[in-house]
Amino acid sequence: MSNPEYNNEKGSIKIADDVVGVIAGLAATEVEGVAGMSGGIVGGIAEILGRKNLSKGVKVEVSEKEAKVDLYMIINYGVRIPDVAWNVQENVKKAIENMTGLSVVEVNIHIQGVSFGTSAKEENGK
User: Fold this and answer.
1) Cα(12)–Cα(14) distance, rounded to whole angstroms?
2) Tell me: the pLDDT tens digits for 31-50?
């Protein structure tokens, strides 16, 4: 895989895979129903990542003109998963294509967990 490169009379522009990953992570977390990106499963529980680690919940394959994206997410309890996943796919595809000019051929969604929206204080009754 090679990073996309655009040449013009002023020079060239190269877009790193990590940039595409950050764009995808931000676009995914903008969708209502997405609690956050997942850093994987630790001890049987999905680990939710903060905003600084958005690209870690994203795997991208970028060629010169195309991108394939895998998103590992945690969703909010009570949402309809297929609807949220569809909205994420659309938002990610649109964001990457608009910002990079790449054609997004796949956006694969991997639901790693469900967030119940409670903090440790609420769970302990405090």
Assistant:
1) 7
2) 999 998 887 655 555 556 55
Residue 9: its pLDDT value, please? Answer: 76
Q: How far apart (Å, rounded) are the C-alpha atoms in residues 120 and 63? A: 43
57: left (phi over 0), alpha (psi -120 to 50) or beta: alpha
Direct distance between the N- and C-terminal alpha carbons of the chain, in angstroms, rounded to an integer: 51
Do 126 and 118 contact (CB within 8 A), yes or no?
no
What Rg value do the Cα atoms of the chain yield, rounded?
A: 16
Calpha distance 124→113 (Å, rounded)? 21
Cα 122 to Cα 57: distance, rounded to the nearest angstrom:
27
Residue 64 has pLDDT above 90, yes or no: no
- Closest listed residue to residue 74, CA positions, set 39, 119, 120: 39
CA neighbor of 69 nearest in space, from 98, 103, 114, 99: 103
Q: What's the pLDDT score for residue 55? A: 67
Distance CA 12, CA 92 (A): 25
